[in-house]
Amino acid sequence: MGKSVAIMQPYFVPYLGYFRLFSKTDLFVIYDCVQFPRRGYVHRNQVPDRNGAPLWLTLPLEKCDQKTAIMDLQWRQSDCAAFGDRIRQLAGDWPLQVPADLREQWLAQLTNFNGGVVDYLERTLGFVCRQLDLHCNFIRSSSLHIDPALKGPDRILEICRQVGTTRYVNSPGGRELYQADTFAQAGIELDFLEPFQGSHWSVAYRLLTEEKSRLIAEL
pTM here? Predict the structure, then answer.
């Protein structure tokens, strides 16, 4: 079987279902050469507050132009320390169920703002993959020099061509965007994950409050 690839925007501490893309593929392409979706999950996700109500956890980003690409996002350095303090405060309210060393390792990842925003997102995704025993290589789409004139499925197909894949794995939401026939004509199998039935809380919360064996089984 040839290489299986997923192409996805890098989400900030996404829900567990996102990580199924890593479990089903050999290569994960961090899709950072596209416009930053302000209402998406690249920079924010939901965790429960002390009463179990949804609470947005949002990265401290500099204000940017509407057309800014994900790869060009910058930190608002003046707010990074306060954001790190907020994460640790939230963790103190959660029913922690993991060893102290894992807790500190994870919190250290979440509060480490060295490097760029995509560096941070890749680093935290990688940490979760290692904890869940997922083995997948990373590459950034920005390193492939995709023609900016290519849009939608054509852009995805060009990435697939450049990385040499024979199978493209997509999230369930991609069914409305991509057609199997289009990919088949390029010699690529298009595969979609089934809708995720588990919890949609951010993995930032779940990795601190549940045994990792339970998360692995849920995947």
Answer: 0.95
